[in-house]
Write a structure and sequence with these properties.
- The chain has 634 residues and is an alpha/beta fold.
- The protein folds into four domains: 1-62; 67-272, Rossmann fold; 278-421, Rossmann fold, CATH 3.40.50; 442-632, Aminopeptidase.
- Strands 11, 12, 13, 14, 15, 16, 17, 18 and 19 form a nine-stranded mixed beta sheet that branches. A five-stranded parallel beta sheet has the order 2-1-3-4-5, with helices on both faces. A five-stranded parallel beta sheet has the order 8-7-6-9-10.
Length: 634
């Protein structure tokens, strides 16, 4: 009876989530639809759920939902079309409407090598090359014998083929490409002698994967998917479906389909600038076990024995995220004095008070706390991940702030780290110097804001900041940061065009294009690269394609200095006019008057609301503000 009751409750819950999702799709409520899609996939991940999401979101009612179109090319050595339902469903849960270009299995070589193939005729945002190890190298997997093994020839041929494929791909496509590394054989043919033989299969696969990484590192935006790690995490016997391998040329199990689609989605989020910036955590039964107000400093569970050891492990994982640039914040219903005492005196605390850039500890609603944190840090709520052990708190945040990503922690604290990391919400493809020191940058911003409050006038504030601006062309050294800025900057971004490293690299090789990053140093420290300008010359016009500035330095007239720099560049390239464009978005009101307040004349307005602006550099120009010092590298 209990099993039947549980089954009925589960069916009822699934039906409720489906109904709620369908309603949100029909009414065009994007953020709520994404929340229900995530819940449905979290609680009822299956081929049936994947197909259901595809049916609901592919209907005519999706038109007003505002999902971002994203086109993925699937190239593989097996029947990868079985992945499409799961990948489409995961895309919906991440705000994407995925379209696919696909060839027959095993045709990936022809597709890449043929300049007239459909791969190059379509507009593709991402290419996935999924090849099983035994299809790349049958002599290592299926035909392995010590007598016939020529390791040097195998490595040389593998390297030659990889470089040939990537060289041809980069000639005709600028899309990022994901390439699987090689998974270990389930059963090595040497048996227990594998570990003592230098020609064992496992060691050979390791060496070939190292070679794969080396080759991919030579090409822009060629990324290696750690396929062997994913297989290991799930378990080889659970990953492969040998019957489907022989029956349908598809070797993966249903469990593997979901895990692999989730892994691909981490790359999509990073490439699109959808990675999260801020982790907001609860305290009681989250960073430590127990309730501080009831158990006291000595009574909370945090130490070397279970369950306290599990909370230490969770804190260490959070500290790891912090070390790579994730902003930390607290939203807790608690007595602040008690909480401060834990951070100051508890010997087992891994995280320190200084690790948190925002601290909302009081008895107000968590929804209000999240709003205050976003306001203080000047980031969008969509960049935040909220973690709590209380299902009621999580549900309230989902309901009132559907743009926030919510993680409800499982009942067992030893599972907290997996719950935090499994979706890869904070994963990025590169980590810049600005990422590593992000928390200190927010502290610098807070110090600058404190100085503003004590200054009697704005010019005095600007001069007291003692700012130096460094203009530097985009190069290999700052390319990753430049691309990252186009993906992540929303508020002060004139056109909000998103570019990958490969797309920016293409412009670097075109002499008509002008590129420049902007770094700001002030009395409180180095803010790093905070701005980007991309412009191209067309006859007598220098046309601004991208003009953006990080929210950390908005309000310091850095944008005026950037326009003055472009006026100066216009003079050096004999451009009579400097042309600007504003593409309005929901998030960029702060930049809307950029050109108007700097003396540009409105040239025309497009049907979609875009405005085009013109400045005659021969009769007028933007002047550099007097309170900056400059370093110009051209």
């Amino acid at each position: 009876m209990n099993e039947a009751h549980t089954s009925n409750q589960s069916a009822k819950r699934e039906a409720q989530l489906r109904e709620a999702l369908s309603l949100q799709v029909q009414t065009g409520n994007r953020d709520n639809a994404i929340q229900f899609a995530r819940l449905l996939l979290k609680e009822f991940a299956s081929a049936k759920t994947y197909r259901y999401l595809g049916k609901v979101v592919s209907s005519e009612s999706v038109v007003g939902l505002g999902l971002r179109p994203y086109r993925i090319a699937l190239l593989s050595s097996f029947s990868i079309e079985f992945m499409k339902d799961a990948l489409f469903a995961l895309g919906v849960a991440n705000g994407l409407l995925i379209e696919f270009y696909q060839t027959g299995f095993g045709a990936f070589r022809q597709e890449i090598l043929n300049p007239s193939s459909g791969l190059y005729q379509k507009s593709v945002d991402l290419t996935i090359l999924a090849v099983e190890g035994e299809d790349w190298l049958p002599e290592i997997y299926r035909q392995y014998t010590l007598n016939s093994l020529n390791l040097i020839a195998i490595k040389d041929n593998f390297k030659r083929e990889l470089m040939g494929l990537l060289e041809k791909f980069r000639t005709y496509s600028h899309s990022p490409i994901l390439i699987h590394d090689l998974a270990q054989p389930l059963y090595c043919l040497l048996g227990i002698a594998e570990g003592s033989n230098h020609l064992g299969q496992g060691l050979l696969v390791h060496d070939l994967n190292k070679l794969l990484h080396e080759v991919c590192s030579r090409y822009s935006e060629a990324f290696v998917v750690n396929y062997q790690s994913i297989v290991s995490r799930v378990g080889g016997n659970h990953w492969y479906d040998l019957r489907m391998k022989h029956y349908a040329k598809f070797p993966l199990s249903q469990e593997a389909i979901g895990e692999l689609a989730r892994e691909y989605m981490k790359y999509c989020r990073s490439l699109l600038g959808y990675s999260k910036k801020c982790l907001v955590v609860d305290l009681d039964n989250t960073l430590w076990g127990g309730v501080l107000g009831e158990d006291g400093l000595e009574g909370i569970k945090l130490g070397t024995t279970y369950p306290g050891s599990a909370f230490i492990d969770f804190q260490q994982q959070i500290l790891g995220l912090h070390s790579r640039g994730v902003i930390l914040a607290v939203a807790s219903k608690n007595n602040q004095q008690d909480v401060e005492e834990v951070f100051a005196k508890h010997s087992s605390m891994v995280l320190r008070r200084a690790d948190f850039s925002a601290f909302e500890v009081h008895w107000n609603a968590k929804v209000e706390s999240l709003k205050h944190i976003a306001s203080k840090l000047n980031i969008g709520l969509e960049h935040m991940v909220f973690v709590d052990d209380n299902p009621v708190e999580c549900e309230q945040v989902r309901m009132h702030l559907p743009m926030v990503t919510v993680i409800l922690l499982p009942p067992q604290p030893e599972q907290y780290s997996q719950a935090l990391l499994e979706e890869g919400w904070f994963d990025t493809l590169s980590i810049s110097a600005e990422d590593i020191k992000r928390s200190s940058l927010y502290e610098q911003r807070a110090q600058a804001e404190a100085l503003r409050e004590t200054s009697t006038d704005l010019e005095g504030f600007y001069r007291d900041l003692n700012m130096t601006l460094d203009f530097f062309p985009v190069s290999a050294k700052n390319l990753a940061r430049a691309a990252q800025l186009t993906q992540k900057t929303n508020q002060f971004n004139a056109t909000t065009r998103r570019y990958t490293e490969g797309e920016i690299t293409k412009r670097l090789h075109d002499p008509a294009w002008i590129t420049a990053t902007v770094s700001v140093t002030d009395r409180f420290g180095d803010n790093g690269i905070v701005g980007l300008m991309l412009a191209h010359l067309a006859e007598q016009e220098l046309i601004i394609d991208t003009f953006l500035l990080s929210c950390r330095v908005i309000g310091r007239t850095v944008e005026t200095a950037m326009l003055a720099y472009l006026c100066e560049i216009a003079g050096t390239v004999n451009a009579k006019y400097l042309m600007g464009e504003i593409i309005p978005t929901q998030k960029n009101p702060p930049v809307r008057d950029l050109f108007e307040r700097h003396g540009f004349a409105l040239d025309n307005t497009g049907e979609t609301g875009n405005s085009y602006w013109r400045l005659n550099c021969e009769t007028s120009k933007v002047e550099y503000p007097a309170w900056f010092k400059f370093i110009k590298n051209q």
